[in-house]
Predict the 3D structure of the following.
Amino acid sequence: MQCNLYGPLGYVDIDICIFTGEKAQAIINSIAAVEYFVTIKGKKHLIRYSNLKTYDPFFVKNKNVFYALLYNDVWFEDEQTFITIQDLEKLLASKSFPITPEDKLERLFLKLFSFQQEDGQMIQPAMVR
């Protein structure tokens, strides 16, 4: 799927999400911006941006975090907003997620422990989804 966007500089073809790399479902209209839907875990998310520079150091550094926020459905409350770097900075500042390896390991263990009905119970792979 491609999004053929006509703006002041002509058409821009978009076929993948800049945050996730997943296939995008184009929205074609007369707005000089990029708009598309991306489906993550069965839920459609509207992505809208204009003037968002994907080479910005903040964007590049946090691209995987943006993917995780979309994947875990903790993205923007109002998906109608056109996303800017400032919006992404505010989004990250408002969310809680593990940063250090120790934090990540602790969250992993807590998630695994949540599958147990009693201490010491073996966790089967089918239980973890």
